[in-house]
TrEMBL record:
Residues 36-47 have a biased composition (Low complexity). The keyword Magnesium does not apply. PANTHER family: OS11G0490100 PROTEIN. InterPro entries: IRX15/GXM/AGM (IPR006514), SAM-dependent_MTases_sf (IPR029063). Keywords: Golgi apparatus, Membrane, Transmembrane, Transmembrane helix. Residues 36-63 are annotated as: Disordered. This is Polysaccharide biosynthesis domain-containing protein. It comes from Brassica cretica (Mustard). The chain crosses the membrane at residues 12-29. NCBIfam families: A_thal_3515 (TIGR01627).
Amino acid sequence: MRTKSQSSSNLKVIFTCCSILIFLIIFFARSNISSSSSKPLSETNLSQEDVENQHKPKGCPTTQQCTKMPISLSDALVHYVTSNVTPQQTFDEVSVSKRVLDKKSPCNFLVFGLGHDSLMWASLNHGGRTLFIEEDKAWIETVTNKFPNLESYHVVYDTKVKNSDKLMELGRSEECTSVTDPRNSKCDLALKDFPADFYETKWDLIMVDAPTGYHEEAPGRMSAIYTAGLLARNREDGETDVFVHDVNRPVEDEFSATFLCKGYMREQNGRLRHFTIPSHRARAGRPFCPVDVDRRR
């Protein structure tokens, strides 16, 4: 059995050893910090910028940029919280495109139509480029005055919904099933007079939600749908996700199925269809539409 004096002596020894150990740890830690900080930057192979960046979150140019909400997102929050206007697409329809954007953004996103949901699309593609093609010049001024960061082009269409049947027949011709730059296409469905940037950008996503198509004298989306498919096929490589809204209407239904191809369709939710179209330039001899499986049997 240990005596009281022995226990007291043992505690003193343990306390003394622990004190010495803590002192040595602090001493060597201070020595390392001192020797490291005393080295010139040239000896540590770090520039002043590198030293400063060591204390910033990884992947952030500045601490402020990492902690501050982007203007596009803050604008979107305020706009939709305070707006009584219902967006053109339902929650389920928007979710189809959002899932693709979640994977591909930041990317190049082309949208036919400048609407109440445009700020949302630009925000979901934060860090990428979202370009809106709009037929109504006055509406562009209204929207961009409120949200100057949105990029849009004013364009003019020369088609009408009442001529859609003739354009459908025309679209089945050899000229319209040849893949080329829309500007060089011999197909009358191709949009050829848009800004050069429209044709020269490799678009990762294309949304066709314009032009107006709900009455006979409206331009309709015949050319927009056809050209979206041509842009996707004519890219050098990869694939393009194309979305068409309002497929409950005959033009959007028939033209998307014919020129974006049922074989490329991935999903339909409500009035929205999603197609994934591969590059035709990357593989010579690829048919305009995939060969139907049942027809090959």
